[in-house]
Task: inverse folding
């Protein structure tokens, strides 16, 4: 095998040298490498650039004229290339004249290069920048004619779009149905608005698709998306308030006329609208709080639980029996008719001041039967009067002045004020509730004003629903 392969290689080289080249084919240049059948002998052959089309050494008589005639016939049948001129010499084609745009110029060059016998193309075509009034008028006439022909289709598309939009409006008009299937009127109106928007948009899409304006439809939808995103960022607070209104209408955090504190704003609830929560302050003023603030705020509701505790602090003289004062004050609170027995009233020692011991008294009332502020005021008066009647001192801050040397202590008798001996007084009888029934009744002026305003205002603007449970 080692001798067979060199033998065939030499034989192939001899045949290649002895065989004359075919007509129209150039003989290989001297020094050209001849490859054998062994693929390992030509490692770069597959990576070399393919050679250009061969150029014949001899040309037939009249070939240039045939090339010119052929290209002229082709360009004459192409409206955009009708003004292109052609000349040829020895296979070199020169193009001239005018073409309407760069695409037509490139197209003419490609056509010329594809004709058999063309060696190369010299493209001298210029772009036609002149205005042909007749051609433009003809083009406008053609467009108008096409528009008139498409009017029936456009009319049908418009009718189809209007029919779809009208059906959406018809569905949205069933307000009673949406109010029955949704928790509140606000959500029902939201569903109706969404139906109208969806069906109107669907009608536009169907109409554009019928007239074949798919690209325009895509542009409209894309533009609507971009505009929607931009409006979303620009109206972020409005959108947030709108969503908060929806959540509050579903959660129902309070009832009409509830006495609430929203952050640091106190009043009775008038109504919940799609934009704000309206309170009437205890001074009788209207207060509008954005629903986005209400949704994120800490809400304190005094009306939900009718039982409410009040407390106050009294300072008893440090030289008195503080325990006896505490017991006496608790007994007085227990004897008040407006103070509940359960939970029972209490009295706690909370602090030791400079000249007294502070006692905190606590009691519970029913807000449906007694006003909290009036009950607390009456309880302070009764306990204070009972303690003073029993001989307990309720001193103000006492200040002592010394004019002697600091190192000399004060006499013992000067540190205590002279007081007559007194016996503990018996606890007073419980206070009669009939004497204070008129004073301690619930204060309902603001509640009455809220009820009157709700009775005269339309109920459609209120999102509060008494039939739904409070969160």
Result:
């Amino acid at each position: 095998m080692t001798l067979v392969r060199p033998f065939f290689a030499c034989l192939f080289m001899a045949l290649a040298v002895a065989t004359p080249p075919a007509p129209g084919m150039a003989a290989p240049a001297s020094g050209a490498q001849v490859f054998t059948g062994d693929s390992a002998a030509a490692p770069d052959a597959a990576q070399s650039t393919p050679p250009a089309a061969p150029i014949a050494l001899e040309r037939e008589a009249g070939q240039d004229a045939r090339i010119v005639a052929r290209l002229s016939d082709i360009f004459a049948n192409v409206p955009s290339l009708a003004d292109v001129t052609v000349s040829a010499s020895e296979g070199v084609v020169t193009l001239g004249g005018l073409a309407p745009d760069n695409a037509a110029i490139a197209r003419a060059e490609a056509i010329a290069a594809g004709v058999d016998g063309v060696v190369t193309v010299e493209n001298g075509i210029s772009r036609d920048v002149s205005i042909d009034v007749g051609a433009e008028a003809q083009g406008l006439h053609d467009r108008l004619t096409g528009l008139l022909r498409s009017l029936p289709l456009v009319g049908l598309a418009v009718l189809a779009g209007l029919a779809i939009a009208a059906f959406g409006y018809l569905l949205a008009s069933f307000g009673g149905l949406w109010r029955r299937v949704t928790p509140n009127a606000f959500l029902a109106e939201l569903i109706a608005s969404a139906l109208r928007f969806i069906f109107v948009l669907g009608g536009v899409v169907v109409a554009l698709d019928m007239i074949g304006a798919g690209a325009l439809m895509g542009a409209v939808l894309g533009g609507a998306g971009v505009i929607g995103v931009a409006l979303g960022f620009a109206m972020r607070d409005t959108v947030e308030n709108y969503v908060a209104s929806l959540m509050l209408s579903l959660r129902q955090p309070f009832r009409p006329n509830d006495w609430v504190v929203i952050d640091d704003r106190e009043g009775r609830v008038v109504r919940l609208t799609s934009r704000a929560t309206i309170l009437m302050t205890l001074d009788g003023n209207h207060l509008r709080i954005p629903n986005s603030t209400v949704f994120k705020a800490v809400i304190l509701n005094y009306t939900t639980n009718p039982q409410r505790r009040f407390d106050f602090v009294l300072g008893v003289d440090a030289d008195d029996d503080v325990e006896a004062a505490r017991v006496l004050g608790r007994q007085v609170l227990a004897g008040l008719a407006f103070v509940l027995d359960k939970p029972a009233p209490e009295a706690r020692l909370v602090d030791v001041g400079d000249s007294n011991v502070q006692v905190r008294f606590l009691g519970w009332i029913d807000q449906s039967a007694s006003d909290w502020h009036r009950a607390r005021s009456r309880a302070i008066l009764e306990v204070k009067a009972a303690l003073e009647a029993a001989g307990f001192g309720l001193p103000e801050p006492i200040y002592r002045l010394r004019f002697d040397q600091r190192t000399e202590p004060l006499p013992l008798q000067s540190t205590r004020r002279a007081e007559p001996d007194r016996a503990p007084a018996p606890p007073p009888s419980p206070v009669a509730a009939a004497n204070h029934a008129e004073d301690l009744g619930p204060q309902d002026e603001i509640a009455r004003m809220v009820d009157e305003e709700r009775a005269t205002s339309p109920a459609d603007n209120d999102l509060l629903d008494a039939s739904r449970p409070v969160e």
Remarks:
- The first strand starts at residue 84 and ends at 89.
- The chain is about 45% helix and 15% strand.
- The CA atoms of residues 257 and 451 lie 7 Å apart.
